[in-house]
UniProtKB/TrEMBL annotation:
PANTHER family: PROTEIN GLCG, SLR1406 PROTEIN. InterPro entries: GlcG_carb_metab_protein, PduO/GlcC-like, PduO/GlcC-like_sf. Keywords: Plasmid. The keyword Electron transport does not apply. It comes from Pseudomonas sp. CT14. This is CbzX. The lineage of its organism: Bacteria, Pseudomonadati, Pseudomonadota, Gammaproteobacteria, Pseudomonadales.
Length: 154
């Protein structure tokens, strides 16, 4: 006779539930950001990461700068990591010590210029979107279009 082991629910003191963006929303946001870029006449790379900073969707428009591939991904990663738009880091760092201001910008994957936004749903970080290839303002505008397509605000 084979013994059946019944699964036990995780102990709530040892785990948490982390809401994260689903694949459909990630792809919808990328598509909307690319459409915004096309309307502006620019070529960009767009990345969406989940709540853990793992890539969930990506699109590179033909002719977008190659180096901007990783920059777009890192903008999304930075935005979800801290829940702060990457364009806000310059001002935010002015409130910190010199050690923090000079040290954090040396961290791998940290981006402190515009184009990355956290994806927030009901006040919870569920992901990040990053756009790279245009100016900082153009990139952020495209990222906002991605959020707007999901009915979310920056």
């Amino acid at each position: 006779m084979q013994k059946t082991i019944s699964p036990q629910a995780p102990n709530p003191t040892h785990s948490i539930v982390v809401p994260t963006i689903d694949w459909h929303a990630a792809h919808e946001a990328v598509g909307a950001a690319v459409q915004a870029a096309q309307a502006m006449g620019i070529r960009v790379n767009v990345a969406v990461v989940d709540a853990s900073g793992v890539l969930a969707a990506f699109l590179r428009m033909p002719g977008a700068p190659l180096h901007s591939v990783e920059i777009a991904i890192d903008k999304a990663y930075t935005a979800v990591s801290f829940g702060l738009a990457t364009s806000q880091w310059h001002g935010a760092l002015q409130q910190h010590s010199v050690a923090v201001r000079e040290g954090i910008v040396l961290r791998p994957r940290f981006v402190a210029f515009g184009g990355g936004l956290p994806v927030l749903e009901n006040g919870q970080r569920i992901g990040g979107i990053g756009v790279s290839g245009g100016s900082e303002q153009e990139d952020e505008s495209c990222a906002r279009a991605g959020l707007a397509a999901l009915g979310l605000a920056a």
